[in-house]
């Protein structure tokens, strides 16, 4: 027998988002069922192993390789109960992407969510928000990074942790941009995959 050891790196990045309600916000399972879900703005929809046609910066006449998805719920959009309170967890995947800080709106990748919630305005008043939209950047945007590139790297895990304590925006076209986000990144773990006639192909579909 001939044994070949090959290192394969994932072409996609994995994104985990955990949204925890603050002391003035409550998530409710019945309300969340009314949510349209989430969309990925400027999601890279192709990738290459080598630079071609200006990739990944879209220079030299290269065609744009990202698009925004339609808003929808999916099995990756979950309401989870922890210590008696609901929190929202989302798992998403996308290909590598690179853009200038001042191109965040046109090219930056972010996630927009519709999150119905109950907001405690005062000790004796609670208000329910249904059409309630937020936007979360996948990578931190800092003003001192002007004229610098931001990027999403392949084979990397992006872990975003957010505490919400206020309502968002009523219009999906102008969602409330949340900047208080804890960002953690790490390379994906190495996984050994034996290949033989008894094993089926393993693959990842980018959603």
Task: Give a short summary of the structure.
This protein has 207 residues and is mostly beta strands. Helices cover 4% and strands 41% of the residues.
Q: How big is the Rg?
A: 20 Å
Structural class based on helices, strands and sheet pairing: mainly beta
Main pleated-sheet profile: 5 strands, mixed
**Terminal residue distance:** 38 Å
Which stretches of 5+ consecutive residues score pLDDT under 50?
none
Q: For the residues shown, what is the average pLDDT?
A: 83
Task: Report the portion of residues in β strands.
Answer: 35-45%
Order of helices and strands: EEHEEEEEEHEEEEEEEE
Number of helices: 2
Reading side by side through the largest sheet, how are the strands ordered? 6-7-1-14-16
- Helix percent band: under 10%
Shape: globular
Question: How many strands in all?
Answer: 16
Question: What attributes does this structure have?
Answer:
207 residues, mainly beta, five-stranded mixed β-sheet, four-stranded mixed β-sheet, 16 strands, globular
Explain how this protein is built.
By secondary structure, the protein is mainly beta. It has 2 helices and 16 strands. The protein has helices at 29-32, 104-107, and strands spanning 12-21, 25-26, 38-41, 43-44, 66-67, 77-82, 85-95, 97-100, 110-114, 117-122, 125-129, 133-137, 149-152, 156-164, 176-178, 181-187. The strands form 5 sheets. A 5-stranded mixed sheet has the order 6-7-1-14-16, with no helix packed on it. A 4-stranded mixed sheet has the order 3-9-12-15, with no helix packed on it. A hairpin with a 2-residue loop joins strand 6 and strand 7 (85-95). The longest helix has 4 residues, at 29-32. The protein is globular and about 75 Å long. The protein starts with 11 loop residues before the first strand and ends in a 20-residue tail after the last strand. The mean pLDDT is 83.
């Amino acid at each position: 027998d001939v044994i070949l050891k090959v290192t394969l790196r994932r072409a996609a990045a994995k994104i985990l988002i955990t949204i925890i309600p603050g002391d003035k916000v409550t998530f409710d399972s019945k309300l969340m069922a009314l949510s349209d879900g989430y969309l990925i703005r400027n999601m890279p929809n192709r990738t290459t192993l080598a630079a071609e046609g200006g990739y990944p910066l879209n220079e030299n006449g290269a065609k744009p390789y990202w698009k925004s998805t339609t808003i929808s719920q999916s099995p990756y959009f979950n309401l989870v109960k922890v210590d008696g309170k609901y929190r929202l967890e989302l798992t998403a995947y996308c290909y590598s992407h690179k853009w200038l800080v001042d191109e965040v709106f046109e090219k930056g990748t972010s996630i927009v969510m519709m999150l119905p919630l109950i907001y405690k305005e005062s000790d004796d008043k609670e208000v329910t928000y249904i059409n309630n939209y937020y936007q979360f950047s996948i990578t931190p945007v800092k003003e001192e990074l002007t004229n610098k590139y931001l990027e999403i790297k392949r084979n990397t895990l992006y872990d975003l942790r957010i505490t919400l304590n206020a309502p968002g925006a009523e219009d999906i076209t102008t969602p409330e941009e949340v900047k208080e986000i804890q960002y953690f990144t790490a390379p994906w773990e190495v996984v050994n995959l034996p290949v033989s006639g008894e094993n089926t192909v393993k693959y990842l579909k980018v959603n």
